[in-house]
Amino acid sequence: MPLKAGARLGPYEIQSAIGAGGMGEVYCALDTRLNRQVALKILPTSFAADPDRLQRFAQESRAAAALNHPNILAIYDIGDGHGTPYVVSELLQGESLRDRLVRGPVASRKAVDYARQIAKGLAAAHERGIVHRDLKPENLFLTNDGQVKILDFGLAKFTHPDPDGSDQAPTVQVATEAGTVMGTAGYMSPEQVRAKAADARSDIFSFGAILYEMLSGKRAFRGDSSADTMSAILKEEPPDLSETNRNVAPGLERIVRHCLEKNPGERFQSARDLAFDLESLSDVSAASRSAVAPLKVRSRWWRPVVAGLLLLASWVGIYRYASRQASAQSPAFHEITFRNGTVWSARFAPDGQSIVYGAAWDGRPHEIFSTRFDSSDSRAMDLPSSLVLAVSSKGEMAISLHPVDLSPFQRSGTLARVALAGGAPREVLENVQWADWTPDGQGLAVVQGTDRGAANQLEFPLGNLIYKPDGWVSHVRFSPDGRLLAIADHIPTGDDGRMVILDSHGNRKAASSFFTSVEGLAWAPNGKEVWFSAVPAGSSRAIYALDLSGKERLLYRSPSGLTMQDISRNGLVLLTADKIRIGMSASLNGESRERSLSWFDWSVVTDMAADGSAIVFSETGEAVGANYGVFLRKTDGSPAIRLGDGTGGVFSPDGRWVLATAGSPTKLMLLPIGVGEPRLLLNTDMGVYEMSWLPDGKAIVYTGVESGGSSRTYFLDLQGGTPHALAPPGFYGSSISPDGKLVFLRDENRQCWLYPISGGEPQKLKLVLNPNEFMIRFIDQGRSVLVRTVNVPAQVFRVDVATGHRELWKEIAPADPAGVQTIAAVAFNADAKSYVYSVSRELSDLYVVSGLH
Which of 54, 235, 652, 752 is least surrounded by CB atoms within 10 angstroms? Predict the structure, then answer.
């Protein structure tokens, strides 16, 4: 019979009912001894009739009560009131994970944060020899302040199954002896299903099923009955997370798969290791792993100290000691640049004291400056527009002369050599993006590439190809002994990727996990690690280390993004703190001033409605983390609407759909603008980066990068059928002529062509695009095309299709040029009288850092 308000069990006075279920009834009660509110759970009456069960319950409750951890429900007391056994715990405010999942999947960044907390709670329990054995969303509680609490340690294995036998039952069996099935169908490990002994690795399997459900919104294992569900656990693998239309980072999916291995020996062997891997994916680092916010470290034990009413004097002493320790262990930052703009690259000179760096200040062209680490004054070197790529042990620079921006992440120039002491540069090789000297200063490794966003290649020595990526590579650096190279290896369509260690022949030796942004690297002086800057979700990069065995660790995270530049032989670190934004501005027909249409931090426009009334854009920055989103916004400035996960986005001719891409491998999706459900068009292994509709809306054309690194363009009939190639490999583009008969393509030499969509001989145009140019759209009923540059200001040319004659039609640039990298995207409406553009802006400060290790 339910208890009424005012009833008492021992020193506890019932105040109100909280809930009831198979585990018993739960009440909010007042502990009259300490005058605090608690949660009081009355256990099922079957407990009172079973002395052995009561004894085991008491033993395990005491063990659970000994787990003093912020991610485990605190048990205060157990007792028996007039034959009614009860357990007293802290009173929580919030909701269970099961209640949260009713509303759909959890955003990846939040799911990683929840998972990290759960793993830490499990690790604390497992290290005390306590295994939960019934981990499930019902036993995980999300508090209003963002904490996750694991509930019912030591209780789950005593509960009875529901009589209906459904897989919604709280648990399946009550006993703990070997040979008895125990756990909740759908979250049990294979060894639990087989009624074998379950150790800590069983909890890790259950954890994996829960994380899968958080990310996908669907159960990892589910059947029509408990027996069917258990069979699935033993024999089946859950669908790939990418199949659930969720944009989940590959590194996170690998963690889920590792947890869900059928063989316990192939899973994570400890929750502590699992928590470590999740830590590297989490945007919210545990304070004990971060030197950024030592006050947060202190706050985790400060609250329980106060809650426990320890002496204030003791607290003050501990606080002062912790402050001194945190201060002593925190890296020291010395800022050496103080102007408004972007630092692109920086290197220590051989003496370890002098620094050279390339920057674009106050909207001016790229320049190379020299300074010292103990100085705040910089001197411009007497060189043409250039960036520093590397400094040799002999005091010679490798620089990029007259660099051209190919994308927000790539720029290409002429490789030249020049002495640190000054002199005229000696040109070596064109179209070089990155370079590094061998340790003896005799040779160079280079990354060559000419086209925007296209694959490049790593050469060593010059002219000898050793690595051809599927996407593109950057930041090549030799190890101190010259035997290895480190590179950032990216996907075709962004700076997502991983850190890779190669031998001098291009053979892969080690690789990091996958990151949504990886930029900047340097070898540690001992040559045993590569330090690099990356972020698993979002845009604010932290500093990580990768050793030669492939083991990864987090070194440092700060509120702003960081980019690793160099490390001196005595361990000083050169890095930039970067603030990166991609904003959108619109110039609308009839308006004299541009209007801002920016939404979050990385707003990249992908299309404009034919009448100029709306735009579609993607968000890929810190605000959305790994859950890249496609948004619709009217140009009147009204709030944006999220259409779904993914990137890209092109309006259908009837204005009812947006064609977008999502996930990896890539899915081509139709996202409804109004009422309707998303529609999957195609799964493809290509990295799709250009898409267009045919004018009748019955077919699309798309271009992507195939597994060998070559671009290719395909036609897809939306009424059925399979894609077919429109041109040989190496041709790319997707702009369709107004009559729907031709597609505008360019080849690897940037020669432009018109290819008939229905088949036939292509037409070679009298137009060759420059490396930093690309086609926007057809105008003038197909007689002309608009072509633009990616430099600032972006120059838009009208080009006659028949003659190749070009004329400057428009220049696009923001009013404030400081820190502007590129005009990242431009979209015009049908009559080209209105347009919207995205501008990428990065503001940097250069620092020398000591004490980072």
Answer: 235
Asked if 404 and 505 sit in the same domain, the reply is: yes
Q: Which domain holds residue 317?
A: 295-328
355 — phi, psi (to 5°)?
-135, 140
Same domain, 316 and 354: no
Phi, psi of 228 (to 5 degrees): -65, -40
In a domain, 739, yes or no: no
Count of domains for the chain: 4
Cis preceding linkage at 665, omega within 30 = yes
Q: Domain for residue 794, yes or no?
A: no
The answer to whether residue 650 sits within a structural domain is: no
In this structure, are 549 and 565 located in the same domain? Answer: yes
pLDDT in tens, 519-537: 999 999 999 999 999 988 7
Run of H or E including 57: helix 51-65
- 85, 78 Cβ separation under 8 angstroms: yes
CA distance readout (Å), 363 to 344, 559, 593: 13, 26, 21
Q: In what order do the strands lie in the sheet with 379-380?
A: 341-348, 354-361, 367-372, 379-380
Determine the pLDDT at residue 170: 38
Query: 3-class SS at 585?
Result: strand
Shared domain for 261 and 354, answered yes or no, is no
State how beta strands 341-348 and 641-645 pair.
Answer: unpaired
Q: Which residues pair with 567 in a beta bridge?
A: 573
Which pLDDT band holds residue 302 (cuts at 50, 70, 90)? very low
How far is the C-alpha of 826 from the C-alpha of 809, rounded, in Å? 14
Pairing of strands 763-768, 773-779: unpaired
**How many alpha carbons lie under 13 Å from residue 45 in its C-beta half-sphere?**
3
Spatial neighbors of 380 by CB under 8 A, at least 6 apart, are 367, 368, 369
Of 60-64, 96-100, 614-618, least confident by mean pLDDT is 60-64
Residue 453 has pLDDT above 50, yes or no: no
Same domain, yes or no: 256 and 240: yes
Q: Which is catalytic among the residues 52, 80, 113, 134?
A: 134
Best CA proximity match to 332, nearest among 363, 369, 373, 372: 373
Q: Residue 223 maps to which CATH number?
A: 1.10.510.10
Q: Tell me the sheet residues that pair with 27.
A: 17, 40
| CATH number of 39's domain | 3.30.200.20
The C-alpha atoms of residue 578 and residue 575 are separated, in whole angstroms, by: 9
pTM of the entire structure?
A: 0.51
Q: Which of 281-285, 452-456, 675-679, 771-775 has the highest mean pLDDT?
A: 675-679
Please check whether residues 246 and 350 belong to one and the same domain.
Answer: no
134 flagged as catalytic:
yes
Read off the pLDDT of residues 352-398 as tens digits, 9 standing for 90 and up. 889 999 999 988 889 999 998 777 789 999 899 999 999 999 999 99
DSSP 8-state symbol, 602: B
269 phi/psi in degrees, rounded to 5: -90, -10
Task: Looking at the structure, tell me whether residues 269 and 317 fall in a common domain.
Answer: no
| Half-sphere exposure for 630 (CA within 13 Å, toward CB) | 28
69 and 137 fall within a common domain: no
3-state secondary structure string, 138-200? HHEEEECCCCEEECCCCCHHHCCCCCCCCCCCCCCCCCCCCCCCCCCCCCCCHHHHCCCCCCH
pLDDT, position 241 = 81
- Tokens 């929580």 sit on residue: 92
C-beta separation of 557 from 280 below 8 A: no
Q: Give domain status of residue 266, yes or no.
A: yes
Rounded Cα–Cα distance for residues 75 and 77 (Å): 6
Distances (CA, A) of 109 to 230, 326, 338, 533, 592: 30, 27, 33, 19, 41
Beta bridge partners of 318: none
CATH code: domain of residue 474: 2.120.10.30
pLDDT tens, 231-275? 899 988 888 886 665 667 777 888 998 899 998 888 888 888 888
Angle among Cα 644, 650, 652 to the nearest 5 degrees reads 100
pLDDT at 517 exceeding the cut of 80: yes
Torsions phi, psi for 27 (to 5 deg): -130, 155
